[in-house]
C-alpha cells in the first residue's frame, strides 16, 4: 500500500457540479467532514421528467459562489486556511462539470493553492471512508447510480480494478424508466423504493439476466422491457396494475442480481469486506439485502449514509485528500471530461 500520511492537518475545499447538485464541502484529513453544503435542482428538473443539461449548467453558475461561501462559513474557515482545492472533472454533464472546474481553477489560482482533479465515481467509493473509520483498502465495492453500475476491487486509495459492469442500462436508469412508465415520476429511485415498501416482492416474477462471458457483468435492459411489456399487456387486457406490487417485484429483481454478484465476487477473489456506493446505494431493499447476504457469507458490510450516497462534495473532498497526499496535482489546463473512465487520469 502507498504511503498515506501528511505532515500536519490537510484541509480540502471540494466542489462538485457533475449533474444537478451544486455542492461544496470542507474535509479535514480525509475522514472528517467540517461542512457539506448541497443545492439541489431536483424540483426544477421534475417538471421535465429528468435532468435538462442546459438548465443544470445555468443553475450551477447561479449557485456555486453561494454554496462555497456557505461551506467555508459552516467549517469556520477562510480560503487562506485551506490546504488545497478539489473539483470533480468527470464523468458527468460537460456544461455542468465546466462550471465547477472553472470555479476551482479560479479560486486555486487567486489563492495560490494546489488544485486536485477528482473522478466522480472515485468520490462515490470514498464516501464509505467518512463514517467507517476502520475501512481501508482492499475491498470489493458495488457502485450503483443513474449512469453507472460497476463492480470493482478497491486495491488501494484511488486504485481500482473493474471486474464487472453493466452491458446496457445502469440500475438507476432502469429505476427511472420504470418509475416513469407507472406514473411515479422523477427521480425514479426514491419513488420506486417508497412504493415498493407497501408491495409484495414475489407478486410478479421478472427475469434476472445473466451475462454469459462474465459472471460479474450486469444487464438491466431485459428486465426493464419485461416490466414495460407487463404494463402494456395489463392496459390492453384491462387488468389492474398494483403499483406497489410491481415496484417491489421489479426492485427485488434488481437487488437480487446486484447482491448475488457482489457477494460471489468477494468470495471468489478472497476479500472479507464489501461496500456499496452511488445514488442507488441509498435504496432500502439493496441495503437490507446486502446486509443479510454479507452476514450469511461472513463478510463485513459498509455503506454511506443516504446524504453521502447522492452527489455531494464531501465525498470529493475525501477522495481528493488521498490524491493530494499521494502527490497528485492538476495543472491550469484541467478540463471537464464528460466520459472519463474509472482509473483514467
UniProtKB/TrEMBL annotation:
Binding site for substrate: 143-147, 176, 189, 193, 283
Role this protein plays: Required for the formation of a threonylcarbamoyl group on adenosine at position 37 (t(6)A37) in tRNAs that read codons beginning with adenine. Is involved in the transfer of the threonylcarbamoyl moiety of threonylcarbamoyl-AMP (TC-AMP) to the N6 group of A37, together with TsaE and TsaB. TsaD likely plays a direct catalytic role in this reaction.
Record-stated family: Belongs to the KAE1 / TsaD family.
Comment on bound cofactor: Binds 1 Fe(2+) ion per subunit.
Protein name, entry field: tRNA N6-adenosine threonylcarbamoyltransferase
Keyword annotations: Acyltransferase, Cytoplasm, Iron, Metal-binding, Transferase, tRNA processing
Cellular localization per UniProt: Cytoplasm
Enzyme category, top tier: transferase
GO biological process: tRNA threonylcarbamoyladenosine modification
HAMAP family named in the record: TsaD
GO molecular function: iron ion binding; tRNA N(6)-L-threonylcarbamoyladenine synthase activity
Cofactor(s) the record lists: Fe(2+)
NCBIfam families membership: gcp_kae1 (TIGR00329), T6A_TsaD_YgjD (TIGR03723)
GO cellular component, one term: cytoplasm
Record InterPro entries: ATPase_NBD, Gcp-like_dom, KAE1/TsaD, TsaD
UniProt xrefs under SUPFAM superfamilies: Actin-like ATPase domain
CDD domains xrefs: ASKHA_NBD_TsaD_bac (cd24133)
Domain Gcp-like: 32-317
Domain of life per record: Bacteria
Organism from which the protein derives: Clostridium symbiosum (strain WAL-14163)
EC numbers: 2.3.1.234
Amino acid at each position: 500500500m502507498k504511503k498515506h500520511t501528511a505532515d500536519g492537518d490537510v484541509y480540502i475545499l471540494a466542489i462538485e457540479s457533475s449533474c444537478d447538485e451544486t455542492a461544496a464541502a470542507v474535509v479535514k484529513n480525509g475522514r472528517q467532514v467540517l461542512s457539506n453544503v448541497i443545492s439541489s435542482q431536483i424540483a426544477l428538473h421534475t417538471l421535465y421528467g429528468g435532468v435538462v443539461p442546459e438548465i443544470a449548467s445555468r443553475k450551477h453558475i447561479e449557485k456555486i459562489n453561494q454554496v462555497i461561501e456557505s461551506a467555508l462559513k459552516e467549517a469556520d474557515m477562510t480560503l487562506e486556511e485551506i490546504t488545497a482545492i478539489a473539483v470533480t472533472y468527470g464523468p458527468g454533464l460537460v456544461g455542468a462539470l465546466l462550471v465547477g472546474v472553472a470555479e476551482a481553477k479560479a479560486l486555486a489560482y487567486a489563492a495560490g493553492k494546489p488544485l486536485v482533479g477528482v473522478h466522480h465515481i472515485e468520490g462515490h467509493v470514498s464516501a464509505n471512508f467518512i463514517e467507517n473509520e476502520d475501512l481501508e483498502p482492499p475491498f470489493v465495492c458495488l457502485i450503483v447510480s443513474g449512469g453507472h453500475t460497476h463492480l470493482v476491487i478497491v486495491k488501494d486509495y484511488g486504485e481500482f480494478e473493474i471486474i464487472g459492469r453493466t452491458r446496457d442500462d445502469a440500475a438507476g436508469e432502469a429505476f427511472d424508466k420504470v418509475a416513469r412508465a407507472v406514473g411515479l415520476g422523477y427521480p425514479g429511485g426514491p419513488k420506486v423504493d417508497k412504493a415498493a415498501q407497501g408491495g409484495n416482492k414475489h407478486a410478479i416474477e421478472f427475469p434476472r439476466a445473466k451475462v454469459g462471458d462474465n459472471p460479474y457483468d450486469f444487464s438491466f435492459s431485459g428486465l426493464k422491457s419485461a416490466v414495460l411489456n407487463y404494463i402494456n399487456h395489463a392496459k390492453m387486457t384491462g387488468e389492474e396494475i398494483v403499483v406497489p406490487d410491481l415496484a417491489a417485484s421489479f426492485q427485488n429483481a434488481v437487488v437480487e442480481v446486484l447482491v448475488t454478484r457482489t457477494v460471489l465476487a468477494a468470495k471468489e477473489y478472497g476479500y472479507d469486506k464489501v461496500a456499496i456506493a452511488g445514488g442507488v446505494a441509498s435504496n432500502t431493499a439493496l441495503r437490507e439485502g446486502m446486509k443479510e447476504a454479507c452476514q450469511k457469507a461472513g463478510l463485513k458490510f459498509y455503506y454511506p449514509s443516504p446524504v453521502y450516497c447522492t452527489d455531494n462534495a464531501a465525498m470529493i473532498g475525501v477522495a481528493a485528500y488521498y490524491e493530494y497526499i499521494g502527490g497528485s496535482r492538476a495543472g491550469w489546463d484541467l478540463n471537464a471530461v464528460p466520459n472519463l473512465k474509472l482509473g483514467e487520469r
